[in-house]
Task: inverse folding
């Protein structure tokens, strides 16, 4: 902290407002790091949801429950670990499947609402007198 204060003192002597510029640059970098973190989290969530959806679709084939003995998670885990290396355990794939089952209804509803809103907006713009 003392070094930072001394640096500020020297900067103020050499170039007034330099410390403010440095602080703004540091803030931009901090915000970028936060954005990257959020982007990575979103990407991982979408990936998990989609992998889970594929497992559910394959195991259940549109049915409410999977047929007895259908467990693609083990085979998929073995394949992905062979292809990409570690990180695709059966438990991770099972959790992806559960993630999809739990959140699929709310995500589907949100997407439907967004599509309906967009459709209504387009229809109102296409009506005569709306330019």
Result:
């Amino acid at each position: 902290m003392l070094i930072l204060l001394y640096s500020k003192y020297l900067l103020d002597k050499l170039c007034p407002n330099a410390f403010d510029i440095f602080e703004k640059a540091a803030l931009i970098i901090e915000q970028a790091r936060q954005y990257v973190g959020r982007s990575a989290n979103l990407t991982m969530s979408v990936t998990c949801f989609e992998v889970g959806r594929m497992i559910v679709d394959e195991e259940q084939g549109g049915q409410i429950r999977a047929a007895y003995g259908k467990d693609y998670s083990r085979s998929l885990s073995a394949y992905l670990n062979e292809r990409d290396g570690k990180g695709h355990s059966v438990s991770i794939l099972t959790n992806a499947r559960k993630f999809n089952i739990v959140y699929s209804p709310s995500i589907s509803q949100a997407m439907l609402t967004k599509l309906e809103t967009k459709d209504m907006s387009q229809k109102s713009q296409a009506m005569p007198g709306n330019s």
User: Anything to note?
Assistant: Helices lie at 2-14, 18-60, 72-84, 90-126. The CA atoms of residues 60 and 66 lie 4 Å apart. The chain is about 80% helix and 0% strand.
